[in-house]
Amino acid sequence: MLRADSEELERGVTTRALGIGSLLLLVVSTYGTFFLARPDRVQGDAARIVYFHVPMAWVAFLAFFVVFIAGIAYLRTRKAIWDHVGRASAEVGVLFTTLVLVTGSIWGFPIWGTWWSWDPKLTTTLILWFLYLGYLMVRAYAEPPRGPRYAALLGILGFADVPIVYLSSVWWRTLHPAPVIGPLAAQQPSASIVWLLLLSLAAFTLFYAFLVAVRVRIEQVGAGLRSQGEVPSYADAPIGSPAPHGGAARI
Amino acid sequence: MSEAAPPPEAASQALRLQAVSAHYQGQSVTKPALADVTLAVQPGERVLIAGPNGAGKSTLLRIAAGLMRPSAGGVWLHGVEPRRARQVIGYLAHATLLYDELTAQENLLFAATLYGVPEPGARVETMLRQVGLSSRADSRVDTLSRGQQQRVALARALVHRPAVLLLDEPDTGLDAAAFDLLEELVRDAESTVLLATHDLQAGARLCQRTVVLTDGRVSHHATSGPLDARDIERHVRGAAASA
Amino acid sequence: MTANRPRYLRQLRALLWKEALVESRSRETVLAAVIFALLILVIFSFAFDLRVDQAAAVAPGVLWVTFSFAGDIALGRTFARERDRRTLDVLLLAPVDRSAIYLAKLAAVVATMLLVEIVAVPASIGLFNLRVDGPRLALSLGLGTLGFAGVGTLLAAVTAHTRAREALLPLLLFPLQVPVILATVKSTAAAIQVPGGEAADAGSWLALLAGFDVLFLGLSVLLFDYAIADD
């Protein structure tokens, strides 16, 4: 019991440290993005989005890679923790993929002149978004004991599909005329850009770890409550019975 | 799931459940379906599993049949885990597990081939005769009555001469005569039997001992002497009342 | 695969025999899939008002969308039927290697899709007035069908045990199938357009298709046990 408590404490401290660390780094990198980085010669202020967009894309791929690894680990060990990690990482991954698509469009409109193009990276990201939405839906809809197993399986399949989707969209794209030219070429990245980008990457990665840690914790608490039958289920309660928290409403 | 090593005596036992637990997982709650059940059945023994609805009888049989994994504990049939012991398991439940589109004979032939029964054609014919359905061999299963279907199901469960028979309320849809037939066939098969049923009279006739389950736990274990249906009934009622 | 090959093959044959018998007596799947495919083709030809010069450009996409939808029907039925009638337990109880169950189901789905294609391809050639390179078309449709059904069979086993399974299966299947759709459409296009020029392209698309088939059939065989096991 004592041991469990000290583990609990330790985990709480780690999670908090992750939270505070990522918050600090995010503040610094955001400040750098808006006040330290100079506007790009070609793209102007629009280029600043790279310090959000690229780290978010990195986090999204990292998240799906973690889903893949957690899937393998779950099928091998059947330990609930891997299922929690996979689910948490998939949710964070879908969130960041959404943000990547949105920030990409925001940048694309002034620079490319269009919100969307079938660039291989965009195509792959969009397909990933669909794949992992499906993953989350299976989690929600699977008959109860099967959800984790199915999710692990999909996490593996989905990640194996990524390189093939990318390859096929590269080939597909090269057979089409590019609708708009992306002028990212022909500029030398300065050292400050690289540093700021690395800082943003670190900040977002820490933030990802923080979100996953919190989400895993929530899953664990939920699983514990479910096994004690303490999650109030309004759907199961017969009509007219006292509310699950015990206090019958009286008017 | 870590596969624990079987206890040494499990190799000589037809069925061994060692501290088996299982959970029923609903959308919002996880309830224990079996809690810490330990059971040893010797070869040739016939055991009645009694208990009120929802006590875990089906779960226990599904776990023994390898259709479900326990969340804790180990299961062995003749010293082997269920997944490797499929050849020796015969399983019959209230669902008939038959293909409606196939005839009685085709259903049995399919099962016999999957189990690698030698001379499947002859064996299937024998089984059909034994369950009294030779004349309906070429009828599609969906044209048979519920009782006839259950008899085909019984033949399917026995077609590969299983050493361990797991019967989960096999009497569903059977009339008294058909149940006598089941009893006779099961006796003749000389298999180890685990029988879950609400017909305690018949169960007591067929089996040598009783395990009463309540809320997923073994609440009563009658090991010696002839079984008395009324005695078992009392335990099951007591179990239901305390649940 | 088991060490005991004759036994494995006997079991596989029994499983295939069962699939064929059940389908030939119920005709639940093939008929629905074929009619559905023809219907889609007719709707496409209304929608696009296809004249001969456009047809060659649009036909590959039209064909593969049609086959994907028909395949989705076939996949949706294959495990759902076994699950609804509890017959899946028969397969799970039997001492059969899981890969044999997978291969039999895969064969059933591929056979259904091929039947659809055998009807729908001549129909669309007539409807859209196409000229095709037969062997090349057959190769790309064959590889595409195998890839589609390969992952599809695995996912159908998964979605059979979910709520809203008819809705969920295509949601999972189609994103995974994007490479197959691209590659099949491209290599079909090469078979439909006037011969010349694009042969090399079609070759690399076919290679991609073959690669996809190998990777995903392998993964599906490996993962099938987790999809079907009842625990």
How would you describe this structure in keywords?
heterotrimer; A: 251 residues; 6 helices; 73% helix; B: 243 residues; alpha/beta; Rossmann fold; 6-stranded mixed β-sheet; 3-stranded antiparallel β-sheet; 7 helices; 9 strands; globular
Characterization of this structure:
The complex is a heterotrimer of chains A (251), B (243) and C (231). The two termini of chain A are 44 Å apart. Chain A is built from six helices and no strands. With 251 residues, chain A is an all-alpha fold. Chain A has one domain (18-37, 46-180, 189-230). Chain B has one domain (8-242): P-loop containing nucleotide triphosphate hydrolases (Rossmann fold, 3-Layer(aba) Sandwich), CATH 3.40.50. In chain B, the strands form two sheets. Chain B has a six-stranded mixed β-sheet with strand order 5-6-7-3-8-9, sandwiched between helices. Chain B has a three-stranded antiparallel β-sheet with strand order 2-1-4, covered by helices on one side. In chain B, α2 crosses α3, α2 (104-114) packs parallel to α4 and α6 packs across α7 (229-242). Chain B starts with 14 loop residues before the first strand and ends with a helix. The model of chain B has no long low-confidence stretch (mean pLDDT 86). Chain C has 231 residues and is mainly alpha-helical. Chain C has helices at 5-26, 30-48, 52-84, 88-93, 98-128, 134-159, 165-176, 178-192, 199-228. In chain C, α6 packs across α7 (165-176).
